[in-house]
Structure formats: structure tokens, C-alpha cells
Design brief:
Blueprint lengths: L1 H20 L1 E12 L8 E5 L1 E2 L8 E9 L5 E16 L8 E2 L4 E10 L3 E7 L4 H12 L1 E12 L10 E7 L1
Parallel strand pairs: 3-10
Antiparallel strand pairs: 1-2, 1-4, 4-8, 5-6, 5-7, 5-9, 9-10
């Protein structure tokens, strides 16, 4: 009896691990928000570069999750971090340097259906806005922002970090 229970438990664990292993984080990217009219919500568009003009950044990240399995993946935890490559604001000849991450957060995704691709928005406000304002006060500006994301580790999976950079004008 104990052998049958142990065998059943191992089969259940193996099938759960296989189903979850078919979920992948395919890509990350950046989006910029724009309010078209006051009565409408913000419209988000993919961007490769952005202009930070001193106002609210209105930036967010996005992650693309793909479930290739026949079963839905549930209870997904997506971790992400944002770093900035800094330059002195005064036009000196200093080289740009990547700073440590200014924002580390996580996003829970309840479910990704079988054979489904899901774009998950990653909130960066207001933490990124505060960080950029503090940089300006200290005499620095970012020339690039980097978004790194990964899925929570399960079992013997390897670590896979997906990143994308946003050029800042």
C-alpha cells in the first residue's frame, strides 16, 4: 500500500513539473503610456527609445509568457528588476556606468491557459519616477534603462533571465 502511494505521489509530482516546465518567459520589453483624452484610460505602446523630459516617465515593462503545454500553468511568480546606465548631467567626458538595480519587484500571474501566449504588464511607477527625480537632483541622467525578468525557479530548472534595454534621449 505504501509503495502504491509513493508511486502515485511521484507520478503526480512528475506530471506537475512537466506541465510547469512547458511555461517559458519568451521576451521582455518596454511600453510608454499616453493619455489621449481625459475620459479615456492610458494607451500603452511598445517603444525602443524614450525621451524623459522631467515629467512623469509613464513607462512600464512587459513580459511575454508562453505555455506550450496541454495543461494550464497556474500560480506563476515573475520577478523583475530595473537598472539605469548613468551619465553626469553636466556634459563631462565620463563614461556611462551601469548602476545597481533601482527597482526590484515581482508580479503574480494567476493562470496561463494551454497553448496560450500572454503579455504581462510590469508596473514601474512610482518607484522609477522617484528614482529618476533623485538622479536629476544629484546631477546625473540615465542614457539607458535595462529590464531583467525571470520566472520563479521550480525543481531542477536552470536560471533563465530575459532582458531588454531602453535607450533614453
Amino acid at each position: 500500500m505504501k509503495t502504491v502511494l509513493a508511486l502515485a505521489a511521484s507520478l503526480i509530482a512528475a506530471s506537475a513539473a512537466t506541465a510547469f516546465a512547458e511555461l517559458t518567459l519568451d521576451a521582455t520589453g518596454w511600453q510608454r503610456g499616453r493619455v489621449e483624452t481625459r475620459a479615456r484610460p492610458v494607451v500603452w505602446r511598445d517603444v525602443a527609445q524614450a525621451e524623459l523630459d522631467g515629467k512623469r516617465a509613464a513607462l512600464r515593462g512587459k513580459a511575454v509568457l508562453k505555455n506550450r503545454g496541454p495543461k494550464p500553468a497556474e500560480g506563476i511568480l515573475l520577478r523583475y528588476a530595473v537598472s539605469a546606465r548613468l551619465l553626469p548631467d553636466r556634459g563631462s567626458a565620463a563614461e556611462a556606468t551601469w548602476a545597481i538595480p533601482c527597482l526590484i519587484d515581482e508580479r503574480r500571474v494567476p493562470k496561463v491557459g494551454p497553448n496560450q501566449v500572454l503579455e504581462v504588464p510590469l508596473s514601474l511607477s512610482p518607484k522609477l519616477d522617484h528614482y529618476l527625480a533623485k538622479l536629476r537632483r544629484q546631477g546625473f541622467r540615465p542614457d539607458s534603462l535595462k529590464l531583467q525578468a525571470m520566472l520563479e525557479l521550480h525543481g531542477a530548472e536552470g536560471v533563465r533571465v530575459v532582458e531588454s534595454s531602453l535607450e533614453v534621449k
